[in-house]
């Protein structure tokens, strides 16, 4: 399989599993556009919503840290969510585009938090309110915000699988020996998803007949050496997901991630898969790691983007091709990747 990467610059959910018939009319053989992003502060300029709308997305996917609250005070959390929903440009997105997604630690409520966060039940309800999830939705009674949404189009279908990497995630190990924040747990110790969510995810992939299966993870999956939060801190969970993706034979699996205040493409060839697994990280919408000077990522393709940006995936069902784009202010394409899934 050939991959074509063009580096433009070297610097720089929710609903239950349902089917939705989508009618789209895209140019240049684009059948469906998914736009996504993460790391969005309400107290900083929201500069990218007009650019996001200009990509004519069929769905916007929040990748986490949709607001910054870091609180167990639900009134304070609700106030910040309300501020975001009142943003003039974001309101246009709400009015024109379906919105799904997940959370990460700063909108979950506890920095680097997981299963131990005592206000997670209440916080989940505020998140669902922000996402305009109906009060009678089963998600209101479910533990965790994981969900899936299938989009049936004339030429094929896309299944978006939204994970919750916070509600069940057990303790991470602080690194007291180097200048990194955390280090991997001992193999077999801890979980990212918890067994209930794992069973649900296995069913999603094993039973999927979609042409593309997009997995949304708030934290990076492939990049594993930077010393911050990532699936790599639970190496046995990484192995488990890779084996599941391969054994399920689910088509066109892609991982979307956020969290890092940088955007980049990572890819890895997994045993049993005839295409590389791509982890597309898009972060952040309002603030980026502008002091970035480099970090190891054995799976990186191209360059790290460290200015404000969002991501898009443009699907062409006829050729089974996806164009991945990192896009900045004024619609500037900062980097792109093309992958065929035949």
UniProtKB/TrEMBL annotation:
InterPro entries reported in the protein's UniProt record: Metallo-depent_PP-like, PhoD-like_MPP, PhoD-like_sf
Signal peptide: 1-20
Protein name (Swiss-Prot/TrEMBL): Alkaline phosphatase D
Keyword Nucleotide-binding included in the entry's annotation: no
Entry keywords, A to Z: Signal
Alphabetical list of Gene3D superfamilies matching this protein: PhoD-like phosphatase
Organism: Maribacter orientalis
UniProt domain PhoD-like phosphatase metallophosphatase: residue ranges: 49-267
